[in-house]
Amino acid sequence: MKDPVIEAKAITKTLGRGAGEVQALRGIDLSLRRGELTLLMGPSGSGKTTLLLILGCMLAPSSGEVMVCGAPTSQADKEGLAKIRRDHIGFVFQSYHLFPTLTAVQNVQLALDIRSERRRKARERSRQALKMVGLEQKTNALPLELSGGEQQRVAIARAIVANPSVVLADEPTAALDGSNGKTIMRILATIAHEQQSAVLVVTHDPRVLPFADRIIQIEDGRLVDERSGERERVRMPRSAAFGAD
Amino acid sequence: MQALSERGAVAVDRSYFDRLGVTGVGSTAEIRGHHVRVVAITDGIRSFATTPYVFVDLKSARSYTGTLNDRASNLLVRLNPAADREKVLQAVRAQAGDAEVLTPDEFRSRSRSFWLFGTGAGAALFAGALLGVIVGTVIVAQTLYSSTKDHLSEFATLRAMGSSNRYIYNVIIYQALLNAVIGFAIAAGLGAVVVQITAKSALPIVITPWLMAALAVLTVVMCVASAIGAIVRVVRIDPATVFMR
After folding, report:
1. What angle do CA A5, A151, A116 make, to 5 degrees?
2. Distance between CA atoms of B151 and B94, rounded to whole angstroms?
3. CB under 8 Å to A145, separation ≥6 — which residues?
4. Which of A53, A87, A114 sits opposite B158 (nearest CB)?
5. At A1, is the pLDDT very low, low, confident or very high (cuts 50, 70, 90)?
6. pTM for this structure?
7. Closest Cα in chain B to A53
8. How far is B171 from chain A (nearest CA, A)?
9. Quick check: B32 contacting A, CB < 8 Å?
10. Which residue of A13, A52, A53, A69 is the best one to mutate when testing the B interface, meaning the one whose CB has the most B CBs within 10 A?
């Protein structure tokens, strides 16, 4: 078994204070490994997003430890956590969070700009990332000129362009129709299997189940079930695999 | 000079024609009951105060002002080019008694100091300039702050992606410098127009290259200082907010 890219041990998280205090996570142990697409599923308020934020080094746990690529994160300050995100983690957000005045390629390039990559090389890598998600024809389109599915593909290209060890996706198919949702999940699965990244998808969309290697169920801040996924192991050429249905 | 030796001959500056009620060479006027005639016109010899200069020969000047022959307000000592200025200065000072003996630079400096610090004019000028700096800084700060506030979502996305504080500072300072360049270009253009318009007036405005450079530096400093509020606001952003929207 491969070493975990992210390892969470005995994570608890308490939100709020006094009468409004909520125990959002109650002793979570979880590992994310390269080459695996893991689904984190659960009802609203079960602690999915809180766990995602802690794994993504955006929220500190109340107790427990998160290791990213073998390094503990508990001692890192804000800048240190930002560096861990920059070096190891790519994010895909439910509402894309693309920059409206930047073109698709510029949006992707931003992920390399913050890593101080040279502009020409960053532009080329960004084009490659867009090609990987089947948007090589739309590199100069503004987000408003793209469909929801295409915008999410740009967001994925932005998340993977720096070759992160782990990609964390928050409800990436929630705003998409079935066809676009499948395309997005197929891309994320390929990122896991071909780029050997660890991919965690937080979702409560049952349509994504066929793409999972592992499915983790969370309820009331506890992991209540973990099982292997029913991934459809259909291999297709990249260009065909990433095109919209 | 030859013409001024005639009885009742005067020279006035072109910019004071209206104030003195003359129209040019040949015009007549009256000084303390003495009839005078304009025989020459100067160009650009203006008084900082409200009273215009009228040039006449020494004898007439004493007559018009009622000054005795052994009295004078100022005496101009013109040196032979071969003379040792310091030696002459010391010799004149030794014999001048209570009278002040000044070099041209000292005279210029004393005159400037008198108007700036010995009268209310300097205080008014400084107060006006200070007010301009304060208002300018506040306007740029407000502009940057509201622009930043409008784009908090984008800044939060950058933070979530792992951008460093330094990257964020650079983005905001770049915007501030853009404000400085645009603002300075407009102000410099307006300044050039004002310089042209006032060039022939009683109170010309002069903008030297050094003053222009100092104003450019001041503008940049003002704009960068204005960015502090926006930077403080952005640094306090919680990157986790991108998962809430």
Report:
1. 55
2. 72
3. A138
4. A114
5. low
6. 0.74
7. B240
8. 11
9. no
10. A53
Tokens of B89: 């200065």
Mean pLDDT in order along chain B per 10 residues (245 residues): 84 87 90 90 79 88 88 87 90 88 91 84 88 91 89 91 92 92 94 91 86 94 90 87 77
Full 3-state SS string of chain B:
CCHHHCCCEEEEEHHHHHHHCCCCCCCEEEECCEEEEEEEEECCCCCCCCCCCEECCHHHHHHHHCCCCCCCCCCCCCCCCCCCHHHHHHHHHHHCCCCCCCCHHHHHHHHHHHHHHHCHHHHHHHHHHHHHHHHHHHHHHHHHHHHHHHCHHHHHHHHHHCCCHHHHHHHHHHHHHHHHHHHHHHHHHHHHHHHHHHCCCCCCCCCCHHHHHHHHHHHHHHHHHHHHHHHHHHHCCCHHHHHCC
Choose among B154, B163, B240: nearest Cβ to A53: B240
Interface test with B, best of A68, A78, A116 (most B CBs within 10 A): A78
Tell whether the model's pLDDT for residue A245 goes beyond 70: no
Whether A241 has a pLDDT exceeding 50, the answer reads: no
Kindly tell me if the per-residue pLDDT of A207 is higher than 90: no
| pLDDT surpasses 60 at A177 | yes
Tens of pLDDT, residue by residue over A106-145, are 999 999 999 999 999 999 999 999 998 989 999 999 999 9
Question: Is B162's CB within 8 Å of A83's CB?
Answer: yes
What DSSP state is assigned to residue A77?
-
Asked if A138 and A104 count as a contact pair (C-beta separation under 8 A), the reply is: yes
Residues of chain B with C-beta less than 8 angstroms from the C-beta of A99 = 154, 157
- Do the Cβ atoms of A110 and B161 come within 8 Å? yes
Q: What is the DSSP letter of A2?
A: P
